[in-house]
Write a structure and sequence with these properties.
By secondary structure, this protein is of the alpha+beta class. It contains 5 helices and 8 strands, in the order E-E-H-E-E-H-H-E-E-H-E-E-H. It has a 6-stranded antiparallel beta sheet. Strands 2-6 form a two-stranded antiparallel ribbon. The longest helix is centred in the last third of the chain and has 13 residues. This is Division/cell wall cluster transcriptional repressor MraZ. It comes from Acidithiobacillus ferruginosus.
Length: 151
């Protein structure tokens, strides 16, 4: 579904273009509807947004709804992840409008990177993405714990 890394710009109103590959899939499978929220599990310095096609988001929401309401960690996660989510639809120019709250959380500037994550995609500030990618590549030895993923 969502693969690759795509660089785009944020316009002065907070709108961003969705790459053609992503847009085509979203239009065909969910009428251009998606949910964007914060990455509540991001490490310090790795803040980004996560965009889910609406049907995928609905599955995620059902799983979150099953979390025990008396678990403080579950409640905090739900407050952040669901509480910051926004349902959006691609406009006629295949753009989405990112709210000031979402842009502030991910510290999005003008240049963005959209990173495909199979069933969702991430939205990063380009400078932060570049810095994180360098760090991850220099620590690639840690990937050995994942086993042999490449056939």
């Amino acid at each position: 579904m969502f693969r690759g890394t795509h660089r785009h710009s944020l316009d002065s109103k907070g709108r961003m273009n969705v790459p053609a590959r992503f847009r085509d899939w979203l239009s065909a499978h969910c009428d251009g509807q998606l949910v964007v929220t914060i990455d509540a599990q991001s490490q310090k310095g790795e803040r980004c947004l996560v965009a889910y096609p609406l049907p995928t988001w609905e599955k995620v929401e059902r799983r979150i709804a099953e979390l025990p309401s008396n678990n403080p960690a579950a409640r905090q996660f739900q407050r952040l992840f669901v509480g910051q989510s926004e349902e959006l639809r691609l406009d006629a120019q295949a753009r989405i409008l990112l709210s000031p709250n979402l842009r502030k959380f991910a510290e999005l500037d003008k240049e963005l990177v959209l990173v495909g994550q199979i069933d969702k995609f991430e939205i990063w500030d380009a400078a932060r993405w570049d810095a994180c990618q360098e760090t991850w590549l220099s620590n690639a030895d840690g990937f050995a714990s994942l086993g042999d993923l490449i056939l």
